[in-house]
Every structure is written in C-alpha cells, then in structure tokens.
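Anyone able to model this chain together with zinc ion?
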Amino acid sequence: MKSKLLLVRDVVTLNERNDIFHDYAVEINDGRIERIAPSKDVNIRNFKGDVLDFSNCTLIPGFVQTHIHLCQTLFRGLADDLELLDWLQKRIFVYESKHTKNSLRASVRLGLHDLLTGGTTSILDMGTLHHQEVIFEELISSGIRAFAGNCMMDQNDLYPAFCEPAEWNINSTYSWAKEFHNSNNGKVKFGFAPRFVLSCSENLLKETKEMMKDFPLSMFHTHSSENKSEVETVRKMTGKENVEYFESIGILDKHTVLAHCIHLNDNEIITLKKNDVRVSHCPSSNLKLGSGIANIPRYISEGISVSLGADGAPCNNGLSAFNEMRLSALIQKSIHGPTAMDALTVLRLATIEGAKALHIQDEVGSVEVGKMADLVLLNLEKADQPIQSNINGATFIDSSIYSSIVYSASKENVKLVLIDGEIVVKDGRCFKYDEEGIIADGKVELSGILKT
Ligand SMILES: [Zn+2]
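re: yes, here you go
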C-alpha cells in the first residue's frame, strides 16, 4: 500500500497526556502511524506517496464499540416500545430464529455500513445462534477490526424453539473458533458469547470458559443485570445476583465483557473491580428499553473498565458512536450533576478505553506513532458548529474540540475513515459496500423473514 501523509487542523491523540496538536501532519506507512509532526516541519513536496490535505479537519482515533448485534440490523424499527423480556420474546427471538444465511448476510452488511460510515473501526459483536460463519465472512471482507462469536443458548423459556442442546453449542462454537480466531491477519478474533444467564445452563457457561483456554486473546462476552425482571428471574434460578453467580462459577476475569451492568449491588461492583471485568455501557439501548441507568461515574471512579456500545439496531435505533457518547454524558447529569461525565472522559470511553477493554490498546484506540492507522477525520467546521482555532489560547480551543465531538457532532461530520491506513469511507460513501444494493437486498430478505 502506498504511503499516506494526512495534513490536518487538529490531532486529538487521546494518548496518556491527551495531547492535541494543531496544524499537524500524520504519516502512514504499511498501515501504521509512522510520524506525527508539525506540518511546517514536513517536506510535503518531496513526499513519496499520497498527500491528503484535510487541513480544515480534526483527526481522532476510530471508535471502538464493545457491544453490537449485527444480526439484528435488519429488524431496526420492528421492535419498538417494549420492555426487555417482551422485546426478546415477541420480536427478537422470533426474527433471529428465522434468519437464513442470506438474511443474516444482508443484516450484517447493513450494520457494518452503518458502523463504518459513523467512524467505528473496531467492534465486539454478539452473533446469533446459527450460521455464524456468515458473520465472520462479512467481518473479514469489510476490513473492520472485530471480536465476534455465535450467541450461545441451550435453554429458552421465553421462546423454546430458539435454542440448541449444550453439546451442539459447544461443538459448533469450538469449530467456529478454530476456523476464525485470529483470521484476517489477526484482525478478527473470537468472542465467546453465551447470551445471558436465562438462556444458558451452568454447564454451558463453564464449558465455554474452559474452551477459551485453547484460544489465547479471545474474549468472553455476555449480558448482565440489564433489567429488573431479568435480575429477579436470575435470582429465582440461581439464588444469586448475575455478577455473584458469574463469579461463583469462575467466569469473571479481565477477558470478560459484561454488557449493561445496570442493576448491581455493592458487592457486585466490588466483584467487577476485583476480577478486572470490563463493562460495556449502552445508553441508547438502556433508555429505549426503559431498563435503567448504570452508575457509570461510580464504576469509573472505582477504576472499573468502562467502554461504549450501541447494542442492536432494534433497541437503539442506530449504531453511531456519536449517539452513545452524547447520551452517556447527558443521562448521568440529571443524577450526578452537570460536572459528571465530561466530554473528554466520554470520548476516551468510545476510543482508548474500548481498545483497553479488548486488550488491543497497543494497536488502536489513540493516535500515536507505532499504532495501526485506524483513524477518523471530522469536519467540525460546519455552519452549526463554528469552532474556532487559534484564539484565546490552547486550553479553550482543546476543550471546545472535545465538546464539539461529543455534544454536537454526528456521523454527518465524518469526512474520512481509515482502517489499517486504507480509506474505507469518504464523504459518507463506504467503499466496501454498494449502499443501494445492500438496502435492496435487505428489503427482500426482511420480507422473506416476515412472511414465514
Ligand atoms: Zn445486547
């Protein structure tokens, strides 16, 4: 791949010092960031490669989302205004159980298009019960960095037709993990994904954790403590709260991502901290399903890993990291006051903290020399966001950049998205997909599902 030189107005590094540089150049070679320097110090004329002049734009790391359901994108708008267990029972389990390979492919493509055009370059996806190979094929061809795995279910009182015996889950998971863990030159890794306590026997959860030993650097990904009815049912089933139950069967450690973690007692919060568990916070989903508001400021102050995820399209209804950032800040302010969840904290959750949650922080999550060039260029100089550089000193300018990204920007501000230094999105157009084609395919596949 040809070298690239990006000329930008600001570099928002999100490194340990949260450096922001103005009027800078970023050189990319072999997919990695090789140099970050003032534009005036770079010999632009003699640069052997592509010079990309975005000197009115702001460069940030690509977003990392740690809880996504690509298989549900096709069902956007078909499961609104329901409580979690009804949402699963009446809609999501019904639709997911009807997925064919083709409908799943259509759903995943729509989801990836939504994510990439919004600047998300790394995800942790919870797949579905069947046809998981389709999701991996699409992840690989899209070029996105991903952890993914089939959604395991060996019991399902809500919708009994949608589960498989434990042995089937274990065998098929093992063979998918063998085939796809570390595929696409290590960009795609396996994320073992038992759905939640209610759909998994204790044996399945334990066997899954055991399997992970054969797949170093894989993740364990499940839902926890999302909804009061779910928590009550788990209590009836196990005699314990979700996190206490997970700890009692030995599945909590730094390779575990728990989505939601809204309804936790003090002991569960201590348990998360003690076991270095990662919390994936999904504010849109939590608000839309009326599940509640996780005490994210407390988790952060306790030193618990927190990152962001859009969850599935039917409980959101979009996959943009900008929505999740804005909401994650706003929902806490009515409880903890306006100083809670400032813009910089939130932007770090959506980038470097997501990378740390997945143990890929040496590769992505910030704009630093040596890291992969998973980058997003934002044009924040739109008419409704006239942020001014070069006035009033750097402190004001820098905080206004964080504010603009978190509180004002949306995917419409995304000018360019690069993964491994390759341009995947430019001016809203994703080079990996024919947008009209995937929408047309989606319509055909969705009508097939709704007819059956
Ligand atoms: Zn979810």
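The chain has two domains: 4-61+367-430, 63-357.
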